[in-house]
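User: Hi! I'm working on a homework problem where we have to compare a predicted structure to a textbook description. Could you give me the structure for the chain below?
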Amino acid sequence: MSDAVMMEHDELWDKLNEECGVFGVFNHPDAPQLSYYGLHALQHRGQESAGICASDGEKFSYHRGMGLVTEAFNGNQLSKIHGRMAIGHVRYTTAGESKLENAQPLVFKYTGGNLALAHNGNLVNAEQIRHQLERQGSIFQTTSDTEVIAHLIARSGYEIEQAVRESLRMIKGAYALLLMTENKMIIALDPNGLRPLVLGRLDEGYVVASETCAFETVGAEYIRDVEPGEMIVIDEKGLRSERFAGQTQRAICSFEYIYFARPDSDIDGINVHLARKEMGRQLYKESAIEADVVTGVPDSSISAAIGYAEAAGLPYELGLVKNRYVGRTFIQPNQEMRARGVRMKLSAVRKVVEGKRVVMIDDSIVRGTTSGRIVRMLREAGAKEVHVRISSPPVKNPCFYGIDTSSREELIASEKSIEQIREYIGADSLAFLSEKGMIDAIGRNDTAPNRGHCLACFTGCYPTEIYEDTKNCVEK
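Assistant: Happy to help. Predicted structure tokens:
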């Protein structure tokens, strides 16, 4: 990731960030408008750029822009996009630079006609394929690994379905992929199902999205989750499905349940809010502490905090309040002013925590800077004790599948023990949820290793071959 992109990380919310969200509509007169609302529902998955491409059966119309969905479409751009089929994308940069050229959907012309792609995830062998294609004469217009897929399709020489099928067999890593021609939509999920992707119905058409919360927004009916290694083709003949991968083994990113997905989404039939709440309950069973009040770091930790409080028989209180209308703190000119920016973004409710033994629930600790600031904030508001409980295991290893941790040096748990982390953040005590406790709390019923979860960021064992780091083990 470029230094410029790293600087744009919000210094208060020291969280893992996910690559993007995808949304598609087939056979609906308001496909572009529905895509706009669907992307709104998926805005939490990416805030750096947004785009929509539609087809009227003969030609494409599209727009992409930087910023939030409302910023990318801040004029009459949406009214110029027409068609009964559309795909949309919201992006957070983890592979490729943060610039308009990398905004998706990517749109191309090739011998078979027009092609648009929207992709959630990272390919672990993108650089190897890119170098091979460049040696064969391909010229890349972006630094996004999504363009690698487009070049593979364009150079295959097959008709579109076979071209996509063959291309998918060449790429490795995480991909929830939407692809569109003038009259056909193709949906595909990688053989490990690392990213969520769901299929729904709306009137006489179909809808596909990264999360079910987008279906609620547009009024679509959920049909099912797209299966790992599945390719779905939708055209005038209807919907048909096939498997492009011989071996599939579910390994969905655990952080979809922990942090990424919206609490009102269901993943594999499991509600995210209820899973997080159960993680909080399990966290109490594993690391109970005498306290007076429980509070959660807004917003993603609130569900787990409620579960912890219920299990502990303690009151859950709104001890921390987030101001949603303050800009990023990195623009402040010095550390003192930056600290003031932090206080503008998050504040402690003094009357709730003053003189109390507080349990502060958070979903993860990445670099440790956020947790330390919040602990200090609670103490300055009068908290007598601050006990930090994390509703996930320690993040010790980088992710290569679409999360913005590219090296172990960025992760405090890879360098420090739990006691050292406790000292660093200034808490009276610190505990993390165990891997088994997390899996049990989520409640997935799967015969795959780890009951169908990817635990790579916790264990260092990856569900695919990792080209960047040959020292890492691979789940068998």
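For your comparison, note the following. The mean pLDDT is 89. Residues 106 and 117 are 5 Å apart (CA to CA). Good luck with the assignment!
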